[in-house]
Amino acid sequence: MKALYLFGILASILALTDGVTFCYYASWAVYNHWGGEFHTSDIDPYLCTHLLYAFAGLNPDTYEVKILDPSVDLCIDDGLCGFSNFTALKEENPELKTLLSIGGWSEGSKNYSIMASDPDYRAAFVSSSVNLIQQYGFDGLDLDWEYPTQRGGTPKDKENFVTLLEELKAGLGDLLLTIAVSAGKPTIDKSYNIPGLSAVVDYVNLMSYDFHGTWEHFTHANSPLFAHPDDEEHGLEFLNVDFAVQYWIQKGCPPEKLVMGIPLYGQGWSLIDTNQTGFFAPAKAPSHGIDMGYYKLCMGQISSDDWVIVHDESMNEPYEYNLSKDNLWISYEDPDSVRLKAAYARDQGLAGCMVWSMNLDDFNGNCGRPYDLITSITEELAK
């Protein structure tokens, strides 16, 4: 039974001791309300081995790196000094590594495709990026291009991406270079020369989440560790963490460079038939926006008895539903499920785990200990 995975494989540990924990920080969390406001001052500098500041962007006119929110990222005009405060966390923990992440979903792909195709544009991007991270004391750069060849890109992006990474690494010297990559098989096949990029970067951050969501008309897990028993008959056998991890390794990514992503947020639907409340239940997008961060979901469970929490024996992730609140059905992670994922990463000999994003954890400890999900991950990696 896959739900007993953690206990069944302890005898065959490949073993990493104290794997890395990459924690993305979403800088726009300073604008959150209702208990979700999060600043660099809320970061525990001992919680993660690597902190990644999301995001900087790309100037479509000059193809240099672009500051996306100066009032948050910089100190000028009474700004919040995000960059400086972020890297200053190393004064408290000298072992901490801080990286600036460039890109993200909202940045799109088209301009990155244009930049990567032209030697002069690449040079402008590399030079400006290196200067920026050196200016603010970052230990490296994380490139989150979503995705080469996709969303306005071209087939040449697959090789141009490797060329861009080679030039970035040359410019960075001893500083770190990491990338965030897709876990979806169609994108993996189209977008990545895996041996080529793996030879250049220090770590590959696998975004192994958002396998399922409201673009589908049925309920499922956001980040299933393994396939559901009924996935194959629905053609969904590739949409799980285990497949993505093994596929990246099979295609040429050294496991010791692969960092497995874990979401600290849920995916939710509204049930169409309240008599069907399990996986593959007919569902639609909720009629109003919902904060799916773990800090919010756990508080909802504490404040209302209407939530039914289910741990399906065929899966490793919990879900909850509430028939008195828009018939909501939410797949999420809890301390037990993230431990299972961290144990998988450790036992597969991976570099460690990555989370998106640390500000979505229960950082104030309203439901238990502060940062319960990330702490559970780091504890499991260290076993």
Automatic annotation (TrEMBL):
Residues 1-19 form the signal peptide. It comes from the Eukaryota. InterPro entries: Chitinase_II/V-like_cat, Chitinase_insertion_sf, GH, Glyco_hydro18_cat, Glyco_hydro_18_chit_AS, Glycosyl_Hydrlase_18. One of its GO terms (cellular component) is extracellular region. Residues 19-383 form the GH18 domain. GO terms for biological process: carbohydrate metabolic process; chitin catabolic process. GO terms for molecular function: chitin binding; chitinase activity. Pfam families: Glyco_hydro_18 (PF00704). Keywords: Glycosidase, Hydrolase, Signal. Belongs to the glycosyl hydrolase 18 family. This is GH18 domain-containing protein. It comes from Meganyctiphanes norvegica. The lineage of its organism: Eukaryota, Metazoa, Ecdysozoa, Arthropoda, Crustacea.
